[in-house]
Design brief:
eight-stranded mixed beta sheet; alpha/beta; about 15% strand; binds hexanoyl-coenzyme A; 2-enoyl-CoA Hydratase, Chain A, domain 1; seven-stranded mixed beta sheet; about 550 residues; 3 domains
Length: about 550
């Protein structure tokens, strides 16, 4: 730091007040404390704060103020500084480039760390990591969510291997806290190298457009190794991670909206895995019917429609917090409430790729299901799926492995599980999308449901092949056989006859039926076998 040549902030402050002598009175100590706090609050100084603002970024403290309820922040380790002795004296700055502590979001405690880019680029060394580790430990012990705000140049170069060890401390804690408390990361500046692995092991990653980026190797290394020119944003900006890689679950245009969205997410979640999610009554009548749903599914079987119409119609107050909104849009996942209770929703989207399941959608769905199961959030599944995406891209990309993840995640989930088959439910995809046969508790179908091994054309082509080939008009015969198949198999009644569907319901009544089902499943308990962990096909 260029603020001062002295490396020990304690000596520096005493020197300023008492001519390098120890304080003589209580008043001296109070002044010293005040001066130290002022210095810590100043971070890297006015110039660097202005630079931060000029880049459209808030400071670490401003971010905490926006994230937490007003006046609720209790800071830890404001006066902590790095040990001297590192090359260049790096680290001897009050707060050591990260602000940590706890506060409330709508009255519920959370623990928070916020990296201060104005202090040595928010780089992470030993003391910095100890501060983050302390709040993570408190979060686990007290059962409160942990929110990490990242804005950092990575491992503090002056601290050498100590900085790498410091990252290890955080990685360990991310994994140990996983499934015990919700962990949320906000990327609000650089996040590069091995540093990306802490946020990517947390439950949800938020990014801010333009001002944040994440990559394992940056543009300079890309240029050197594979001779490609690429900007930081093109390589690892918010758009890339929300649309292509799936690293970012949420992207917001600026810091303010991002932090507001984190608050919104926290409101759906329990504080830890021993609690149920908070109940919030939005005064939406549980027995509200929506007659327009009776006409949602088009008459023509291959015509798309927007599944979000159904989602918004049934949820309390039409409130839906979509996760991974821009990624694998053929599957919709997110949080809502039914009768005041948080639910996790997984739905095929017939408006995108006909709602087919592909590699990305399978992984997106599997991770979401596992999060909900970790945190006692019931799962609601709306099904309209023609199958898995065919073709060498998907097969070679691992559709067998990835589809198995979604199947595994559903089967493993012990929270209440309810399915509504809206239209297509074909083949393996019928099973994977929370069918009765893989342990769903209550399965409904709309009268428009088509539950079958194959779609009508494919089925007719296979079972009537000889008849079609020997016919004088193969196209006409195929069409007739297709229609026969449709009439016989493409309905929910065969499945209802077997009890695979608990009831065929009027679409307009979906909301009320779901809320009653959640109520009856509230006491659901399942003994899980004693084992270290299952072996999900990663
Ligand atoms: C120490 C750092 C630092 C770092 C930045 N600074 N990164 N100090 N260690 N890693 C300091 C700068 O010296 C500078 O100090 C101040 O922060 C602001 O940096 P600038 O370069 O002026 O800012 P900017 O132009 O915005 O560029 C930001 C940046 C760049 C892109 C992050 O600073 C940069 O490339 N830093 C190094 C990134 C890096 O290679 N980190 C290691 C990655 S590997 P002054 O006093 O001059 O203002 C890693 C491994 C993790 O992290 C391992 C986990 C297992």
């Amino acid at each position: 730091m260029k603020k001062d040549n002295l490396t020990d902030p304690y000596k520096r402050l005493h020197k300023g007040f008492k001519g390098n002598q120890e304080p003589q009175s209580v008043q001296d100590n109070l002044c010293t404390l005040q001066a130290m706090r002022d210095e810590a609050r100043e971070g890297g100084g006015r110039n660097r704060i202005e630079q931060q603002h000029a880049r459209g970024k808030l400071t670490a403290r401003e971010r905490i103020d926006l994230l937490l309820d007003e006046g609720s922040f209790e800071e830890f380790d404001m006066l902590k500084a790095g040990r001297s002795g590192h090359i260049g004296g790096g680290g001897a700055v009050l707060s050591d480039g990260v602000i940590t502590g706890h506060g409330t979001i709508d009255g519920r405690e959370v623990f928070v760390s916020s990296q201060d880019f104005t202090v040595m680029g928010g780089s992470l060394g030993e003391a910095h990591s100890e501060k983050i580790s302390k709040v993570m430990d408190h979060a686990v012990r007290t059962g409160a969510p942990y929110i990490g705000i990242n804005d950092s140049g990575g491992a503090r170069i002056q601290e050498g291997v100590d900085a790498l060890a410091a990252y290890g401390e955080i990685f360990n804690r991310n994994v140990k806290a996983s499934g015990m408390i919700p962990q949320i990361s906000c990327i609000m500046g650089p996040c590069a190298g091995g540093a990306v692995y802490s946020p990517s092991m947390t439950d949800f990653t938020f990014m801010v457009e333009q001002s944040s980026y994440m990559f394992v190797t940056g543009p300079h290394v890309v240029k050197t190794v594979i001779h490609q020119d690429i900007s930081a944003q093109e390589l690892g900006g918010a758009a890339v991670h929300s649309q292509k890689s799936g690293v970012a679950h949420f992207v917001l245009p600026n810091d303010i909206l991002c932090l507001r969205e984190v608050r919104r997410l926290i409101n759906y979640l329990p504080s830890n895995n021993r609690q149920k999610p908070p109940f919030l009554d939005l005064r939406d009548p549980p027995d509200r019917i929506d007659p327009t749903l009776d006409y949602l599914v088009p008459v023509k079987p291959d015509q798309p429609y927007d599944m979000k119409v159904l989602i918004h119609s049934v949820l309390d107050g039409a409130e839906f917090l979509e996760v991974h909104k821009e990624y694998a849009r053929n599957l919709i996942v997110g949080f809502g409430r039914l009768g005041g209770q948080t639910i996790g929703l997984i739905a095929n989207q017939p408006a995108i790729l006909a709602g087919v399941l592909d590699n990305n959608a399978s992984v997106k769905g599997a991770r979401f299901v596992r999060f909900c199961d970790n945190f006692n959030i019931p799962l609601i599944c709306f099904v309209d799926v023609p199958g898995f995406m065919p073709g060498p891209d998907q097969e070679h990309g691992g559709i067998i492995r990835h589809g198995a993840k979604l199947l595994f995640a559903f089967i493993e989930a012990t929270v209440p599980r309810i399915t509504v088959i809206v239209r297509k439910a074909y083949g393996g995809a019928y099973l994977v999308m929370n069918a009765k046969h893989i342990g769903a508790d209550i399965n409904y179908a709309w009268p428009t449901a088509e539950i079958a091994v194959l779609g009508p054309r494919g089925a007719a082509e296979i079972i009537y092949r000889r008849e079609i080939q020997s016919s004088e008009d193969p196209e006409r015969t195929l069409a007739e056989k297709e229609e026969d198949y449709r009439q016989t198999f493409l309905n929910p009644f065969l499945a209802a006859k077997r009890g695979y569907i608990d009831d065929v319901i009027f679409p307009r009544e979906t909301r009320g039926r779901l809320i009653r089902s959640l109520q009856v499943l509230e006491g659901k308990e399942i003994e899980t076998p004693k084992r270290k962990h299952g072996n999900i096909p990663l």
